[in-house]
Amino acid sequence: MSQCLLCENDTAVQSWRVFFGAKAPVLCNICLNQFEKIDGPTCEVCSRPMDQKGICPDCAAWEKNIFSSNQSLYHYNDAMKALIARFKYRGDYALAELFAEDIQAAAKKTACDLVCAVPLPPSRLAERRFNQSEALIEMAGLSSTPLLARHESDKQSKKSRAERIEAAQTFYPIGNAAGKSILVIDDIYTTGATIRLVAEALGQAGAVSVKSITIARSGS
Fold first, then answer.
1. Cα 217 to Cα 68, 132, 138, 191, distances in angstroms
2. Helix, strand or coil, per DSSP, at residue 162
3. Between the CA of residue 3 and those of 12, 19, 82, 106, 186, what are the distances in Å?
4. Where is average pLDDT lowest: 115-119, 175-179, 190-194?
5. Please, are residues 27 and 4 in contact by the beta-carbon 8 Å criterion?
């Protein structure tokens, strides 16, 4: 019997579908229906939901660099917040499978040369024992190129909005991305500070453009 990873209800598929290789879903329909895909007008740069398509004030205010756009797939509602917290902090690595098809489809549309994960500081990687960005890439069947590493830094979740925006550079290049366009995959887009610091470091590695795909877009 297969169980939902969130509520532990049965998720078994019908027996005739198993014969044709169908896998039981990771979540039951009740849990799955709590997640809201982003639909309708959004900021052309960061996927922030808007009344009409355009560029949000935050993106208009950011200093330009080689980062060009982020596509977020879901709203960061209470259900998504709980899911990502469980994925990142309780080690439910298998939850990355939920987003594999969505990430695959979005990645095909970006047509970038290389895929790169957002690295964790060494102490945080030791604490969690896996990188959620790497997990999302792996579950989507994509190949990650190690281009960046990260110095020790305070947790983003503990910082205020202003502190995130003013955050110092913690990423540094460890690979060669000369002349390449890079796709970065991560879990949440909040203020855009992290991806812009990532893009800056990738620029030092020689990248010419950076796009990102994130599972959720926070409204803050």
1. 16, 16, 21, 9
2. helix
3. 7, 19, 18, 28, 26
4. 190-194
5. yes
Question: pLDDT-based confidence at 93, cuts 50/70/90?
Answer: confident
DSSP 75: E
Cα distance between residue 51 and residue 38, in whole Å: 13
Q: Which long-range contacts (CB under 8 A, 24 or more apart) does 6-10 make?
A: 6/31, 6/82, 6/83, 6/86, 7/31
The packing angle between helices 100-110 and 132-139, to 10°, is 80
Give pTM, 2 decimals.
Answer: 0.86
- 28 CB contacts (<8 Å, ≥6 apart)? 4, 6, 7, 9, 10, 11
Instruction: Record the tokens describing residue 18, joined without a space.
Output: 């198993």
Under 8 Å between Cβ of 6 and 83: yes
Going by C-alpha positions, the residue among 168, 211, 179 that lies closest to residue 68 is 211
**CA-CA distance, 184 to 133, in Å (whole number)?**
9
- Give the C-alpha separation, 77 to 33, whole Å: 12
Percent of the chain with pLDDT over 90: 60
